Amino acid sequence: MRRAVVGAASASLLLLTPATASAHGIVGRQDLPIPVWLFGWGAAVVLVLSFVALATLWTEPRLENAGDRVLFSVPLIAEVVAGAIGVGLFALVVYAGLSGSQVPVDNIAPTAVYVAFWTIPPVLGLMFGDVFAALSPWRAIGRATGWVAKRLAGDSLPDPLAYPQRIGHWPAAATIFAFTWVELAYSENSDPSTLAILALAYMALQLVGMSLYGVQAWTAKADGFGVLFGLYGRLSAIFVKDRRLRIRRLLSGITSFRPGAGTIALLCVAIGSTSFDGFSQGTLWAQIVPHLQSFFGDLGLNQRHALEAAFTVGLTALCLFVALIYWLGVQGMKTVESGHAWRELAPAFVHSLVPISLAYVVAHYFSLVAYQGQDLWRLASDPLGDGSDIFGTASRAIDYSVVGANGIWYVQVGALVAGHVLALALAHDRALVVYQDGRAATRSQYWMLAVMVGFTSLGLWLLSATAQA
Amino acid sequence: MTTPIPAHAGHWFADLLYVVPVAIVVVFLGIDSLRQRKKARDKQEKET
Known about the structure:
The complex is a heterodimer of chains A (about 475) and B (about 50). Chain A has about 475 residues and is mainly alpha-helical. Chain A has helices at about 1-5, 10-15, 35-55, 75-100, 110-130, 130-135, 135-155, 170-185, 190-215, 215-220, 225-235, 250-255, 265-280, 285-300, 305-335, 340-350, 355-370, 375-380, 405-435, 440-469, and strands spanning about 70-75, 240, 245-250.
């Protein structure tokens, strides 16, 4: 969305100012009491202390198979209303994209997609459970269609096909990669009509998938946003099951998640793409990208496509880098006690990447939501950019004083550290189950500690590079 | 071809400082691995 703000700017302009063109917002300089890198050291110390505390105080699995209790029933009408709101918002964004002004800052579609849709559901998920499942427009339409079809066809309605296990979460991983590619690499990323068409195409794909494999199976496996936001929702203490609002121990919901093919790829793409979002705004990428662009230019691509290819390489490289860190961590764990293969350990600990992914989202997009999110008030009054003022907020400007540069930095560091401490707790709890013996479990987690320190340092380095740029 | 500019060394050094915590943990892991291997070897020797 950073580029969406200046979205109409040409690819060549992006090349000239790759670091500044996509800044999160003009918030002034940080004035921190200690050097930025020292925060990285401090974060590592916090992680090591947390690790020691877990090893000594957390000697039994506490999250696995933790129970829950019912708070109250959720009426059916609430589900229907939430679904209708989701469908209504989707229709508004698509209509605005197709019929409204094609100037990105005047049209609600780019801000709605990159700020409201992409960054807010993860945080809501942590606080209130899987909110996106209730609001998902394709899920709501799929369920409504299924309900109508069942009424009309009765028992003659054929059962959905069995979802292929070998495909697993790969479609979800591909979806998140494609979305972040559009956001970060595609030169038309903020064109309202392009976004509307892509949204419609995605809706069509979801409806076809749901009609073949059933709403539940498809949204749980193949809908990239549904799966990813659902994983964040599993971290929450609140959740809805069988139309009942329930409460459980924080983080315990993610332990019952059963990973399948493509789950590791999904989370590596989620973390890698957020990392690339930060990395692509730093000075190092600004030095690399002209070389990549000229390489692809030499292969015959025009300037625009060469730049897109360069960003595609960067995005892919960061996703692979995240996968490499995880792979090294699991390979290390294998050396602790014989008899545990990659096939067992890699899926067993992949859930610990979920809080890291969420921490990266909060850290990288906090300033975007804090500033660009305010613009939703203006755009809600004038979604098409045609001069209307529905709620009387069309002239509302962004207040950059709501949070300063230092405040943003502290939130970012806090989110990263908290996310990684939670990840350590999840991995430790799982290690106690996998290794049985507490000593072996702790030793195996030395490797996860290295992974967490690596991800924290990477995250802080990316954020500091963005702030400098 | 990019020529490294000495004045930029400060920036590179600042970037490298982020790697220090990772390096410390990795060195610790290496030492621990060697210690465990030695322990296993000693145990094997005792048994034989």
